[in-house]
Amino acid sequence: MGKPTDLVQGTLDLLILKTVALQPMHGWGIAQRIKQVSKEVLQVNQGALYPALHRLEQQGWIQAKWGESENNRRAKYYSLTRDGAKYLRQQQAQWSRLSLAIDLVLNTT
Amino acid sequence: MRWYYKLPLRLRSLFRNQQTAQELNDEIQFHLQHQIDEYVAQGMDPKEARRAALRLLGGLEQIKEECREMRNVSFIETFVQDIGFGFRVLRRSPGFSAFAIICLTLGIGANAAVFSWIEGLLLRPFPAVAQQDRLLVLVGHDRAKRDKGTAGSNFTDVSWPDFVDLRRNCKLVDFIADKIMGSYAQRR
């Protein structure tokens, strides 16, 4: 496997929303989970992660709550709101359509 | 999105500025600590691990600034800062400030004075009349003078008996008042 691929523009939001939809998670956890689930292909740019989280929070798609982390430290946990779930469904559908379309074009013989 | 969700967040980041800044700091420190732990677990020297974690995160202050920008209140913050800066600059050079303030005072004052003068003279010349845009001028008409001289030169003053008659009987206008230059009536 080559070098971890940079995220396609605009997909970070989608990945974050999907990740916190499973369970409330802090920033570090989100980055780790994305890396893990994508089998280390997707590497979240740490510098972009927190601004994105704050933007999503401001847009009302995720909400933050302080809680105890697994090693007993205070951490900010993000979870999906109902609006966020709706937005995620829309974005996911759009992404599927887009990637399907790209596949179609690339696999034309 | 939903205002009832957004508004408290905005107000909070605006008025509990210290606390949000602290929380942002805690959040990023938490992240940093995890990264350092991971590097140390890989066998890195703690100091070196800290440096590497910071490098991976990118500029700490830059990220904080970006997060603040996402909160969309930075424009209010900068506005407040600008006002503060303005006052400090004024205090630093009192002579210039006094001069500027005097210039502005005189300028605005002169402007207001001229405008109220023009308004009284040209725009609303009859302060007692409520609807000045409905004023009419009543003139007499001298048939003998028709076709002579410039346009309107056959207008004359209204004679006093005509004026009294008009005032008594004319139903088209509310009120007729006399003035040396001619007669004015207010339309219904």
Describe this structure in words.
The complex is a heterodimer of chains A (109) and B (188). Chain A is an alpha+beta fold and 109 residues long. Chain A has a single domain (11-106), classed as Arc Repressor Mutant, subunit A (Orthogonal Bundle), CATH 1.10.10.10. Chain A has helices spanning 11-22, 27-37, 46-58, 82-106; strands at residues 62-68, 74-80. In chain A, a hairpin with a 5-residue loop joins β1 (62-68) and β2. The longest helix of chain A has 25 residues, at 82-106. Chain A starts with 10 loop residues before the first helix and ends with a helix. Chain B has 188 residues and is mainly alpha-helical. Chain B contains seven helices and five strands, in the order ααααααβββαββ. Chain B has helices spanning 3-15, 17-41, 46-57, 60-70, 74-92, 94-123, 160-169; strands at 135-138, 140-141, 155-156, 173-179, 182-187. Chain B has a three-stranded antiparallel β-sheet, with helices on one face. In chain B, strands 2-3 form a two-stranded antiparallel sheet. The longest helix of chain B has 30 residues, at 94-123. The model of chain B has no long low-confidence stretch (mean pLDDT 79). Classes of the chains: A alpha+beta (109), B mainly alpha (188). Chain A binds chain B through residues 26-28, 45-47, 50-51, 54-55, 57-61, 63, 66, 69, 73-76, 81, 83, and chain B through 1-2, 5-6, 9-10, 23-24, 26-28, 30-31, 33-35, 56-59, 62-63, 66-67, 69-72.
